[in-house]
## 1
Amino acid sequence: MSRNSNNSNFSDQITNPVNQIQNELRGYIPQESETVINMLNPNNFNNLINDAVNNQQQQQQQNQQNSENEQAQNQQPPESNPGIGPMIARTLQTSFPFVLIGLVKLLHQHFFGFLIVLGFLVTQHYANKILVDQIQLKDKKSNKKLVLLIGYLLVHITIFYQIFKENNLENCLIFLSPDVKKMDTWNLIWIVMCSDTIFKFLVICIKALFTIFAENLVSIQTRGNIFSTIETFGLFYRCLIPIHPWILFIFFFEDNDQSPKTLPLFLCIFYIIFKLNQIYNAVNELLQSIRDLLLSIPYGTTPVVSNMDDVLCPICQDKLKKPINLKCQHIFCQDCVCTWLDKENSCPMCRTKIFVKKPKFRDGSTSFSIQWF
């Protein structure tokens, strides 16, 4: 109501001066310009003013409505699902202290076991490194270091079994049951890991004995095939060691009177099915290694060049000893190129494939993986 009264007052203030101007112009403007004077009619002028005022009010209302919409959008809560990545990162950040507390408690409860596991891993790493280094030295190898390595590993194994003498953990190596009160998850992991690592120690000892006594009796190519066969046999045997502990674990329950009868049977059947596939692959690798050992296809031929005295081996940069010509026509010392091909399957000069598959464990190394299942 007040807004309409203001508009009427504003119109009255404008109308009176306009009438005076119109009367004065009628005396000076000719009759032809009567239309100009009509444009200054108060009614027409009032309509123009009212339209301008209404447009201004509508513009103000529109601006006010837009500002209210923007404020409402800014006050809306954030999206409930910002994304999986930030949510996971936030969860890990908030739960890390509690996980750390649990790990410290677990370490305190099984400190002696963790210490033995750490000793096993460090021992295997350095034993494997020493053996591979001595094999690469060929005639310059130190038999004393190899004997000390064998003695150290055997003492390590003996001390371990003496500490856990009441559990008879050595039975696992010959597929018998260990003497444990309950075959729960922790005991299963402990027995499987220790048995697997100790058998790898025995494999390293066998390779070291072969390096000491029989290496000079065979060529380097045959030596690589023998090392590969020993390792693949070890992988096959290690594949069999966890079977008995796992079956005991599947059929173990805290309360034997109320234990289910059908669930362990089905779990055991599924385990055997999956295990047979693993054993099948291990047998195939073992047979392939034995086949390579028996066939022993040479890497190349003896070169027919008459004068080889001035030719240097690209690997050792010395005069050729027992030269061998690969199928890519590059000539090397037999020992040098065989040592190279124990790790690679291509020519060291032009990278031509000498055989399809990359060699495995021909350098005397032992697999660092653990056979958990």
## 2
Amino acid sequence: MQHEIFEEKELALKENNLRGAVKSCFHQDWLVREKKGELIYRDCLDRHLSLFNPQGYLVAKTYYSIGEKSVQKPLNESITFKVSCEYLDGTHITRKITTNKNGKKVIYLNEYEYDDEKRVIREYHFMGEHDGYSQREFEYRYEYLVTGCKRTIIRQGGTIETETSLLDHKGREIAKSTLAENGEQVWEKSEWDYDDVALTETLYWSEGNFLRKTYDEQGRLVETLSMREGKLYERQCYEYNTESLLVKDIYENEDGFCASGEYFYDEYQNLIRVKHTKQRAEFTEQDERTMVYEYDKRGNWLTKKFYENKKLQEMIKREIEYFE
């Protein structure tokens, strides 16, 4: 089980909707426009290279200096941001980020240690060049109770804080409080309530204030409801298709603002059209965004064009290399 701090969407090929044995993917994102049928490049928004292992996990990600505002100019070879990851039995255990900008090098290192049950028992965070000018360490302690488990997290680095959580038999938090070194409570105590029949999860932090999440039988989030002082604060609903892709969402808040979105996909499950509607008592606003793709023989897109209200605004190009 991976710790919640991991950015799961960057870890696996499938989460980036890449298919097959992808070895690397070089990504360039441009603001563009069309003039008399000619494509004009305006600004480069992003250039990065992702490397994957044969199991489909990200092992390195390098961001390059954006450089000149021209697609014809060569890449600026100065590495400004690099991510490297290590895995143990498919589990992400370290994440190291090295930046090098204008000759100044800074390293960000996150390390995680697990017990035999794959629970995090230690986190270490480092930022600096040699000895580090910012270091934090988290120690996790678990104590089994009749009702489930008690987890204590001790934060060290500048100040010491102790976070204590009670977990049920499924490993879900049911109560949490954070105390400073002198014993004073740092945050309001939070409590969770789970209804496995109604498939709801509710977080309470003070009287009349709660956040409730409702799921369907497939574990997909279908509603979030936030209350403040017993009154509606925010509400959002979600609908999915048979492939579990989001096809509609609706948002409303206490001020009477309402927004909705409709989402359409192609045969490769890539988003091809988005319709947004925003409403208040005095106005209704609508906009539409479409995406057009060019694919390779393996079903991965190489070019993605973004149109807002039928006008070309942005284009992403990808160069994909596969394992043999």
## 3
Amino acid sequence: MSNEILKKHLSDLKIETLRKLLGEDIVESLLEWELGTITKSKYSEILCSVHGVKLFKNPEFRYHILLTLRGKQADTEIPILKKLAKSKKDDKNEIIKDVAKCKWNKSELSKEILGIFGYTLEDAFPQKETDEKSIVQVDANERFYELLDYQYVIKQRALTNLTDGVELKRFLIHMPTGTGKTKTAMHIICHHINFNLRKKGLVLWIANTVELLRQAESTFEAVWRNLGDGSINVYKLWGTNEPSLGDETLNGFMVCSIQKLLALTKNSHGKNLFNRIVNDVRLVVFDEAHKAFAKEWSDIVDQLMIKKRGMQDRALIGLTATPGRTTSISGENSAFVNQFGSNIISIDTEIINRINLSEQDADNATAEMDIIKYFQQRGVLSKIKKEELEYPECLTEEEMKGIRLVATEYGYDDFSKDALEIIGKNRFRNIRIIERIKELNRDDFPTIVFACSLSHAQLLSSALTLAGVPNALVTGNMDATDRKNAIAYFKDRSNPLNVLINYEVLTTGFDATNIKCVFITRPTNSVVLYSQMLGRGLRGPQMGGNEECLLIDVKDNLKKYDEHLAFSHFNNYWNY
């Protein structure tokens, strides 16, 4: 999809129109930062970079861009557009007004307009993935799908917990990001289905983002093909996926969003399916378990973890890279611990030494208690090189007045959206951030940038485009296809794009092994969120990543957490 034709036509618009289309806030900030003269050509380039084909959704934009048609092109296209829009006008401007007012959808008129500027209907209206089957059967292969030593130990300890005879068992598995948490969990699940459940009953995997759900589905299928006993049903229950089920008992593996489970409890049809899940479930696995403490989500877990007369026993496993929810010693963390039975399975380096060393060497060896350092030494995780980015002017007194902590949807306190907007608009802070990103790009450092807000992400992308730095914008409200393409461009090292600017995505469920720098511009009070952002660069050479990863933290970010403390801060809450 090329923007070249659109850029040419955008350059024919008045500079005031281009500024209005880009947004006055972004324009004012770019001018205030004095990054250079912004010509009409640069405005056109920025609009294509930030918005691209999505510009055509705006009727005002369609009107202005169609007015740029000249000469033979206008003589050819205007009559066609008039006919498709069923306009009764004869004046060119009036015809274009009628055309621009028409509904923007997958129509012949939209196709004609897009074609003028080199686009297709598929570019503007990407096909939604509605052709996925809600139930698939996955056959097993013969090849063995091996676990690493520490993953195997976690698996065996988990299976011991699942078969120790304690009803309604709850426990949490803690493995740092980048050490194969999802794959290890799927080995546990496949073994449990094969040998303990004898393929009877339902294993329910719960997560809160599409990325995590897809990752879980694909990983389960890969493990089952290697370790599974025959075929198994995989049920997908998220977004538009809702399998059509008969009255038979649910047997197999179900991947479900917490949002879908909540929705099922709020109408009679949904409650019927929810009650069937409650009745047939034998194992509940909650990915990113720290989020299970949010009130509504916690209620769902409690409804699943009951055993009425006639029901089979079931267990709850939480998965997390950070076994705590806030940075303070609080009743909230204690309650979170209790939700998983005050029972955590973590990586024990002393046991790993017993496996890998001779008896004499193991007796004389001192076990490395710092799990992050241990995996860095083994090359499983990259070594983090920290850099604190300073900027000349701190946040003003006026800016500080608007910065406060509020309760988030996940139950912990963090900076409010208004506070993050204020921080994200600081001129000196942003100029320093952009300067550093430009340096990283010159050094060919693939970099993920975590922005403060949506507007901050758009602003950074605009400024980098203006500076000639190839970048992609990935936000939570983007079309899934656009997001997928942006991530693919970043992961493709033959592509010159080295900078991925992110807001509300990529903290979890995203695996890119080429990351050399994690740039955190978003301050946070949550050790959970901070460690997830940091985790994007933690994959070491043994996991297909890099020996080292640069972590850049803006000076106003929290400084009492480093990559070691983030994983050990909550240990005193657990009964090992």
